[in-house]
Amino acid sequence: MVSARDDVFWGEDEREDGEHLVAQASILRKQEEFETMGYRDGLDIGKDSTLQHGFDQGFSLGIDLCLRLGEKIGALKAIEDIRTLKGEEANESIVELLKELNNVTSQDAFERENNTIKLSDRVEELIKRADLLTQ
């Protein structure tokens, strides 16, 4: 707080310059705070957007893979069940492929290529083998 005695040591202009400097420093500090808040908000929005895109892509691939694998496993099991009902021996190629398909995990089912996720070559090969055996 400024009193009348201050005029003895500082003139009116000097006091106003000091108040101006304090106000200017306060404005700069607030500006930096808002810039920092804006930067943080921008990072949060970017992270949310990236996470959502990754989730959407992974979910779509996961559903597609589950449907395809379920279809192949069902067809192979049906073939084996029919063979069993007919009294025929198990087809070792089908039995082995069923084991491999049932052991597919999310870690070995997908691979990263550039900025996208795709089915691994191993899973694609298993699906092709299943296609050949179920035709």
UniProtKB/TrEMBL annotation:
<dbReference type="GO" id="GO:0005737">
    <property type="term" value="C:cytoplasm"/>
</dbReference>
<dbReference type="InterPro" id="IPR038881">
    <property type="entry name" value="Yae1-like"/>
</dbReference>
<comment type="similarity">
    <text>Belongs to the YAE1 family.</text>
</comment>
<protein>
    <recommendedName>
        <fullName>Protein YAE1</fullName>
    </recommendedName>
</protein>
<feature type="domain" description="Essential protein Yae1 N-terminal">
    <location>
        <begin position="38"/>
        <end position="74"/>
    </location>
</feature>
<dbReference type="InterPro" id="IPR019191">
    <property type="entry name" value="Essential_protein_Yae1_N"/>
</dbReference>
<keyword id="KW-0963">Cytoplasm</keyword>
<dbReference type="GO" id="GO:0005634">
    <property type="term" value="C:nucleus"/>
</dbReference>
<dbReference type="Pfam" id="PF09811">
    <property type="entry name" value="Yae1_N"/>
</dbReference>
<keyword id="KW-0539">Nucleus</keyword>
